[in-house]
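A quick aside before the break. I want you to see a complete sequence-to-structure record at least once, exactly as it would be stored in a machine-readable document. Don't worry about memorizing anything.
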Amino acid sequence: MNADDKPVQSLLIEEEMKDSYLTYAMSVIVARALPDVRDGMKPSQRRIIVSMNDLGLGPRSKQRKCAKIVGEVMGNYHPHGDQAIYPTLVRMGQWFASRYLLVDPQGNFGSIDGDPPAAYRYTEARMSVFAALMLEDLGMGTVDYVPNFDEQLMEPTVLPSKFPNLLCNGSAGIAVGMATSIPPHNLSEVCDAIIHLVDHPEATAEELLQFVKGPDFPTGAMVFGYQGIRDAYTTGRGILTVRARMGIEERKGGRKDLVVTEIPYNQNKARIIEKIAELVKDDRIQGISDIRDESDKDGLRVVIELKKDADEQVIENQLYQLTPLQDSFSMIMIALVKGRPQLLSLRDLCVHYKDHRFLVITRRTRFLLDKAEKEAHILEGLLVALANIDAVIELIKKSENVPAARRGLMERFSLSEIQADSILRMQLQKLTHLETEKLQAELAELRKKIAEYMEILAKPELVYDIIREDLYEMKEKHTDKRRTEIVANEVESLTREDLILEEDMAVLLTHAGYIKRLPLTAYRKQARGGKGVSGAERKEGDFAEHLFIASTHDYLLFFTSRGQVHWQKVYDVQEMSRTAKGRSIANLLNLAEGEKITSAFPVKHFDKRYLFMATRKGVVKKTLLEAFGKPKRGGIRAITLDEGDSLIGTCVTTGRDEIMLGTRNGHSIRFPEGQVRPMGRSAGGVTGIKLRAGDEVVDMVIVNPSTTVLTVCERGYGKRTSFDEYRIQSRGGYGIINIKTTERNGKVVALRAVSDSDEIIIVTSQAMTVRSPVSDISTIGRATQGVRLMNVEGKDEVGAVARIAAQLERDAETPQVEQVEATGEVPPANGADSADEEPPADEGEKE
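That is the input. The structure line, written in tokens, reads:
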């Protein structure tokens, strides 16, 4: 080893890595990523503003090339390369990135579409009025200076920051082990909050929330909910939900457009449009026909054209859920306080700004006081010389040199060295009478200022008065309207259902498994016996199997041929035109191979009422409705069926209703619901009616004495009959005749409980529809063939029947039939007393 070589030291690699990483982490935290709580600036931003000030690029100066500014910053203060400096400069001049621009740009500074700025040799810039406010009083000893990187210049450690930059422009940065995300705010609100804090030093963050309503992003948009704002401003952390501002505009032909005029902060407009296009292409959002970007110099505008049958509220909600049109903004208010990172509340940020301004104004006042005292001291010496001008001139003439003259003046007139030098430099014009009076006036003014400065330094309340006046002045000159709307509702409450108009719809499910919904206005009223209007275009052999009226907010329960039940919302069923085929039910429900929907109806709430079920083989079952509130994706068991049996009807009951079952061959049975005890979901049920050979149950209704039972047959015939003509029997019997079925009227298709004020919709297997008032149908006896309700031609036949309640108002909690009053306990019938009734059967249950 040479004598000049240093000895090798042994180090633990763990300790060396720890020390090195800690040094790196602190460098990133303090000198790069986090803003200073006083001026809200990171070192790179501060050095850019200082360099522009050095170049004289004030708000009224001519703009200079950004290349010049970048070179000045890099050469004097920030030796980190132009790729670190220019993007920072650009961001301070982008309207969509900064709420109050610190840089006044000229040229291409990028766009909200994510387009990059032009090279710095093409762009120009200067300071804005807000940057000038940040630098005001910089040369008055208001802040400390430190040597730059090569110790050739001095740079400020912080700016005086008359403009509350941290609160008004916010800040974002990722350090090591921590990050900051402070949103921008409205200057007027920030000024009001700080003024209130100056007037009430003990004010809490909750009190300041009366003035600072929430973030005010440069891109506008809407912030939902106060809780996230309150959390962030009281604790320093909170999550805000930000939504784009979207409106609805109507076009010719009744079509509508969704128009986006504001988007969430830090989001890319072009990327949003691309995301929407991807979702439409993947069929995840339906109903959008085109997307156009109509943004111009007047503002942002993205037009989303909707198809004619599209539900704009559904699409709006889907856009919020699946695209960046809704975004979460995480507020983490961390800033450097005395060189250390701290999590700060709204009050803390305002207090630190107030304290910084207090110190700046105090140092400025002390600087001005020192300057005024020096000037007054000189003026006092000059006035002494003028009062003794002949002696002064004589002394100077006799002095050998300047130092001798200086000493003579100091000794003869008790002057200081500074005063003596001022006298020696005094011009002859000062000897005039007017100049003497002017010096006396200047001295009086200086003594007045000195008294004011001393009073300000002696009374802190006067410093706070200056802070308050500065804030009032900024508010008056630079205030603008809030851009971001604060919505009180939490976004969680704005569900998809809330964005959909609640209205009655006709929901139609075909035999082949196609489903759609359409407004009731699609069916015009016709007189009884009308031919109907053309319905949906269907493939050969398909026909409407289920048709019912439901609110868009209702739940749909689908019961299948295998005894399963599936759950869906009415608004999830796509709205289509009357002639549309519909959408395959397989796109909504997870059905097994060969499984078919046999019953479907709407409910609003899963409560203590009952679901009453009937099967094709006459089995009935009663189960609490709440047991069906949470079906699984593949459905849940509703009833256990025997081989060859299937579910034909389900309805909601109170537990005290009466049930009427109707068979295909025209028989029926009426019995109290109380005769069927409640069972679990997987139970198999008990016998409701015994069937004759070749017969099967086709429908059931809840008995309501104030209504009549409507029976509709295949050939378009039907009749209304009073429930009084159907005596109460014990379940398990063969029942009595409901209607005489012949070749003329055909087999029974459906039973409905209706009143005179109701209307019905009848759909045939060939999709012909008719809507007629019930009052046009005569009330006749049981053992009749009925009257013509609809003209069914050729081999066509009735496929489905639905009842519409009076004035289109129905109880959304009951399917197919209206809710009825409790009928009370009714004793079962004993024996047969009708010629068309079979003897009563055993009460044997089929569990």
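Two observations worth writing down. Residues 82 and 787 are 91 Å apart (CA to CA). Residues 13-187 form a domain with the Topoisomerase II; domain 5 fold (CATH 3.90.199.10). We'll return to this after the break.
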